[in-house]
Fold these 2 entries.
Entry 1:
Amino acid sequence: MDITTTQYKHSDLVKVNGRIDSATAPQLAKALDDITNAGRYRIILDLEEVEFMSSAGLRVLIGTQKTCKRYNRGEVILASVPKRIYDALELAGFVPLFRFFDNVLDAVGSI
Amino acid sequence: MSSTYTEVYPARFENLDRVRDFVAELAEKCGLEPAAVYAVQLAVDEAFTNIIEHAYGGESEEKIECMCQIEKDALVITLRDCGKPFDPSAVPEPDFEADLEEREVGGLGLYFIHQLMDDVQFIFVDQPETGKTCNLLRMVKRKEK
């Protein structure tokens, strides 16, 4: 799994490549914690290149969403979510807890 | 007629890639659709993770055996460990109505396994030679008619 983060004026873009499972999820959690620990709570997660995500990845997403939404200070937005990953989010009942965008540009523009 | 393939892995998260690839190859060989192959990979990943976290209490050099049987109309996967006996009825179902703040992710793996596979059974097997009880998790994914 590879993670690329880009800091914009009003948000942070995090692009993930590869497989998010119990082995790699801590690395994603660390990348997201680094952003929220810096006081930045508007995060766009680009999942286009994610081939696999287990509940370990979902746990990271929900944990970060809780941190970001607290005190209404921000949110995690999901962009370019592959169908299989979306299906897992749906199965977990997480779809109502996130905003989804078909591409990163629209996601960045929505913040 | 059925063929059986078995691999054994140390109970470490780094082996998730290998076990997912192993079952995916056999799911394809069995003739499952791509979406079903992914479902099998996700279910096995969740089960393997649960064994490491709950049966063995974390990563270790203990073993997890993955046996796949290709049958005419289904793939049967059995994961075996000899860690703590696992009682699936002790795991609460996820609460899908809870607010974000109350949302817990524990139990989601087991819920996924039940949703993704067509048949799921937990079996305890006594091992008289070691005095241990081993856990078998048998999961079936059937081919679409």
Note: The longest strand of chain B covers residues 132-142.
Entry 2:
Amino acid sequence: MEGTGKLGWSLIRLWALLVYGFMFLPVAVVVLLSFNASQFGSFPMTGFSFRWFVELANNDAILRAFRTSVTLGLMTAVISTTLGVLASLALVRYKVPGTNMISTFLIAPILVPEVVLAVALLLFLNFLGINKSFTLLLFGHVIFTLPFVILVVQARLVAIKRDVEEAAMSLGASPVQTFFQITLPLMLPAVLAGGLFAFTISFDDITGTLFWKPGGVETVPTQIFAMLRNSISPEINALGTVMILLTVGLPLLGAAIARQLAQKSGP
Amino acid sequence: MSVEAREARQPWILLSPALTAVGLLLFVPLMFIVVYSFWLRSAAGADQVGFFLDNWQEALSDAFYRDILLNTLKIAGITTIVCALMGYPSAYFIARSKGNKPVLLLLLMLPFWISYIIRTMSWINILGVSGALNSLLMTIGIINEPIQMLYNETTVILGLVHFLLPFMILNVFVSLDGIDTNLESAANSLGATKWQSFLQVTLPLSLPGLAAGGLLCFVLGAGTYITPMVLGGPRDAMFANLVYEAIITQLNWPLGSALSLMLLVVLGALVMLYNRYLGMAQLMKGLG
């Protein structure tokens, strides 16, 4: 019996290994091909080269898309995190009647299929006179990222004890002083995590963005999508590699910073 | 104002910006497209305001829409089952591994952070005419001419599984990790084999996580239009592609509204059903 258990576990381990391979292989191929010296973005590889990254840096359309994505992501992160942190504070710190209903209401934007959210927002704001524009994109990205921010911030906020704040208040600090000198520094990792999450989701979004973006404006994902219509070029793979570094590197960096902060302010 | 009244008002002040945003940018627009779906597209100029049933009649009675809706549900269903089969053992491995659990979990979450469009297009590098697989098969000499393996229903499902698998694994992991391993030991010491104790103790206790992962895979899979556009052929359109066609290509916004609402009702019903029996809390655990 012990033997079958061991065999079972080996099979599970093998299975998991294959699944890891399935998840990573295609991504690894993108990175590999981005260094391909060949004219075409395909096998066989003819040599190692950085030429596609150089071409990337000289491609105005891609640079423009990059700037749009970063601006949009940063603005989305700031607005979404502000709204999300305030709401999470209310949900975690106060006894509000109907907390469950409020929570469900606030995360509704991710319970509704994104296509439907995209159509509804586009048609409604157009009716109000706001056409496809950067403003519409920003509204869309804020509403779509808000639930994620609330979920992340709420989960971390629960861990902060009220005792410290009460101690500060009993020592004569005003509520405003307490918030800025005690609560906010303690919340900082949660706030950063929420902001980072919002930025990454906004930076990656394509489903809603294709509905909201005005003609001629591209974000990085929609630019890639447009380039795919022609054929897959090594330039797309190079852009993919940059995106992978960014979207994987940023959260890892964020996690490291959060850990540092948590250690500093910890007991 | 009394102190108590101020205390009671504070949370609402904190909540009001978020509640207003969700109300104005989600709920009001949803109600608006309900109204819009009864308007009529006019050949030129603004859509005709009124109460017309034409769009709904077209959306509900045309076999074309019905077939694509059924096909969409089928694709989402297969995707969900494949995700469960691939994801459950992997999540079990992470949860019960004696190694570094956070690192194993992080490794599986990394693809989750990588852009959806990049992960979708990466399959073109693997399966395309000049992709890795064709190149490999030709080098070995199994084939002489590259085969077109892309742009069919299977590659759409493949792309969706690659996109959605982390959602499944994370949800199953969360529920497996919460099970007291003593329960399994107890079952074993009472004479159950490993397999029996898994089937009768662990599996039933992890079903809520499996259901949460399944719901996410199904709803996200059934709502996508990017994957079929990148990895599917002309005949592999899913329901969300029809919405995209109506809104963006044909500019038939009233019909697009009706189609969007159809999708919302079908997928919303699933979410409601899930909420009724298992509650939202399980879903939140996995997302948070």
Note: The radius of gyration of chain A is 23 Å.
